[in-house]
Amino acid sequence: MELINTNLHSSLIIRKAMRSLCVILVFAQLSCSTPSQEVQFDGQSALMFVVEQMAFGPRIPGSEESWKTAVWVVEQMESIGWETEVQHFSYRGTPLMNIIAKSEGGSERKPILVGAHYDTRPYADRDPINPEAPVPGANDGASGVAVLIELARVLDKDRIRQPVWLVFFDAEDSGNIDGWDWIVGSSFFVDNLTQDLEAAVIVDMVGDRDLQLFIEKNSDPGLVQEIWQLADQLGYAAFINTPKYSMIDDHSPFLRIGVPAVDIIDFDYPYWHTISDTSDKVSADSLEQVGRTLEHWLENQR
Ligand SMILES: [Zn+2]
């Protein structure tokens, strides 16, 4: 990971310092008002992670922007105490990377994986005006990654009874372009798994201001009910307990090998695969509904 240039590096350090300051301020505020309350998933913090990814530009597989984003993800995860490994591979001559962060402890149980793709689509082929331009990917890409990083920051490791793997997949979203398949990174990950997983939860396009999370029809029904009912108990209206779409997404390879998997996705996103998939379409509240649901779910496994 030394390809990073000095300017980028120093700006990362400054951003990291600013974030630490914010975190300290948040802590200070919490300890003034509610001393016993644990740190919870914060939508504003997650939204900052979206904005930081967008600053790299489109994260097209194999590009320098993708590489810089991967370095940034590793730095974020390691700065909050998550050991991270990078899975290098190539597809049709393009070097790709999955990023894998694992919590420690509870290793007698099977891990739970939470995943998101960090790549963005090379062409905005649903854009009516500029279909040759790349997708910026604020919701389709950055939102899922932001949820994973913010989850990593707030998860209470003492309350987690099994290993949690947070996995950032490359090359989900280049399907039907230049002969590429969809879900390349997650397929490679699954084909090289050496350990059985308890469950896989994918978050994709979870930042839309008007968030509507219908049930994706291929998802494991038991897992769906656990998560959607928990969201209901928490009062999060974005989770709608009605099936709607069937998707090929990063949950598909896990289902193929028999791991219960769910795709948490809002497919009613008007800016999907257009150049208008930008940060202003993403809301902190939406990210928070998804993040807090997963935080509770992971911290309250029996
Ligand atoms: Zn997409």
Explain what the structure shows.
With 302 residues, this protein is α/β, with parallel strands linked by helices. The chain has one domain: 3-Layer(aba) Sandwich (Aminopeptidase), CATH 3.40.630.10. Helices cover 38% and strands 16% of the residues. It has 8 helices and 8 strands. The protein has helices at 6-33, 43-54, 64-79, 138-154, 184-191, 221-233, 252-256, 284-299, and strands at 83-91, 94-102, 112-117, 164-169, 199-204, 213-215, 239-243, 261-265. The strands form 2 sheets. A 6-stranded mixed sheet has the order 1-2-4-3-5-8, sandwiched between helices. It has a two-stranded parallel ribbon with strand order 6-7. Strand 1 and strand 2 form a beta hairpin. Helix 2 packs across helix 4, helix 2 (43-54) crosses helix 8 and helix 6 (221-233) packs across helix 8 (284-299). The longest helix is centred in the first third of the chain and has 28 residues, at 6-33. It is globular, with a radius of gyration of 18 Å. The termini are far apart. Mean pLDDT is 90; it is low at 1-14 and 26-36. It binds zinc ion (ZN).
